[in-house]
Design brief:
By secondary structure, the chain is mostly helical. The protein has one domain. It is about 75% helix and about 0% strand. It contains 22 helices and no strands. Helix 17 runs antiparallel to helix 18. About 50% of the residues are buried.
């Protein structure tokens, strides 16, 4: 089939450019420009620039720097680390309690941060050394933290969901609400995986015998309370319809700065650091979006999405089998490409197929988000694995990868549950939109 050959050529060209250490956004932009000039028309290259300008001019994109700033302020100021201390104290008596506390803290931090690497780095810098100090297996400590970090892009706010919404013109508010219940489900599955591993091998997480006073519990809970309140207010305002996603982003960023200021956490250039990182992350996001638009334009002009959609929807198989095939492709791509790149490449190609099969784009957005979560912890290009290696230098990549792979299974179970029960993702958006 010609469309599949074009798609295979595109992936091959992308992998070749990435092997030359050319950034993903630049690689996709080059493929888009050269492909348009060679296979469409040199004059059509101007049209690419017009498309990129019109798409990136969208007001909805203001949400990206706002939510990124909120997460960066909470991460750098130390407010995020307080979530781990509180969760670890309250959950420490469970089998693998510190690892479960890490996942719970990651879920809490995810509600104020739309980035998986930031979540993994913020929680991991404190959680992994603490678990190792208490005799936890390095693989369990690293794996639970890397997997917990993936919740940063499922529980809203979520930068990948914003990108998905822009590409597909799907409601970002609907996508955010759709991620809440699957995010909580995924946190539960990851925690259950920790318990199962520890029950099967007690040496992986020795029980903690030190008693914690009631006053210490209250103090650590009070330190985590401001972050929890910010998260509840942001999600509550979005769900109640009081504010749009962009307005909730502005509210969350302002609240994070004001709370950090009131608690004396903005000293030492914290705000300056947060602003610099916000600019870098937003710049990366915009470049990736533009590069994706370039490559999407040439593939669309060559008829790749349309032909693939026609081919797949015309197969004499059940729709769920096609969804399984797409998920297998996503799983394989996740081993070699970074999460956002997968989203930019796959979504424009398969969106028509998903809609043609009768599935909801919001539901597909949640499925793709979980798949790129898996991509963040699967070697050899698992982003969270390298992030943890950076913030905890004495961790080995082999320990981190071995521990993280064990958590791929519950994530796949989560996808299966969403395939069987789509309302897990669609119930909350259905009440609001």
């Amino acid at each position: 089939m010609e469309a599949l050959l074009w798609f295979g050529a595109f992936i091959g060209a992308l992998v070749f450019l990435l092997s030359l250490r050319i950034p993903v956004a630049v690689s996709m932009g080059l493929i888009g420009i050269l492909g348009t000039a060679v296979f469409v028309s040199p004059r059509a290259v101007v049209q690419i620039a017009n498309i990129a300008y019109s798409q990136t001019w969208s007001f909805v994109l203001v949400i990206v720097p706002l939510f990124v700033l909120m997460g960066e302020v909470i991460a750098i100021s130390g407010l995020g680390a307080a979530l781990f201390r509180a969760a670890a104290i309250w959950l420490r008596r469970l089998p693998g309690g510190l690892a479960i506390g890490t996942i719970a803290a990651s879920a809490g931090f995810a509600s104020v941060c739309g980035s998986s690497p930031i979540t993994a780095a913020t929680i991991g810098s404190m959680a992994v050394p603490e678990m190792i100090k208490h005799g936890y297996a390095r693989s369990l400590a690293a794996g639970a933290t890397a997997a917990g970090g993936t919740l940063g892009i499922l529980i809203p706010p979520s930068v990948p969901m914003i990108l998905f919404g822009v590409i597909t013109e799907t409601s970002i508010g609907g996508l955010f609400l759709a991620g809440i219940l699957p995010g909580l489900m995924m946190a539960t599955l990851l925690s259950a995986t920790v318990i199962l591993q520890v029950v099967m091998n007690r040496s992986m997480a020795p029980p903690i015998v030190r008693r914690v006073s009631f006053s210490e519990r209250m103090r650590t809970s009070a330190e985590a309370l401001p972050t929890v309140l910010i998260a509840l207010m942001v999600i509550g305002a979005l769900y109640a319809g009081i504010a749009s996603p962009s307005e909730t982003g502005a509210f969350g960023a302002a609240a994070a700065v004001l709370v950090a200021l009131a608690m004396g956490r903005l000293r030492g250039g914290v705000l300056s650091q947060a602003l610099q990182k916000t600019v870098r992350t937003t710049g990366m996001f915009m470049l990736l979006l533009i590069g994706g638009l370039f490559s999407s334009f040439v593939l669309t002009r060559l008829g790749v999405p349309q032909d693939i959609s026609t081919y797949l929807t015309g197969l004499d198989v059940a729709p769920w089998m096609i969804i399984v095939m797409i998920n297998i492709l996503l799983l394989i791509m996740g081993m070699f490409l970074d999460p956002l790149s997968i989203l930019v490449i796959v979504v424009p190609i398969f969106l028509d197929t998903i809609v043609g099969l009768g599935y909801d784009p919001i539901w597909f957005g949640v499925i793709v988000t979980i798949q790129i979560e898996i991509a963040a912890i699967t070697p050899p290009v698992g982003l969270n694995l390298f992030v943890l290696r950076t913030v905890v230098p004495d961790l080995s990549i082999s320990d981190t990868a071995r521990g993280a792979v064990a958590f791929v299974i519950p994530m796949l179970v989560g996808i299966v549950l969403l395939l069987l029960f789509p309302q897990i993702a669609l119930w909350l958006p259905g009440l609001r939109f």
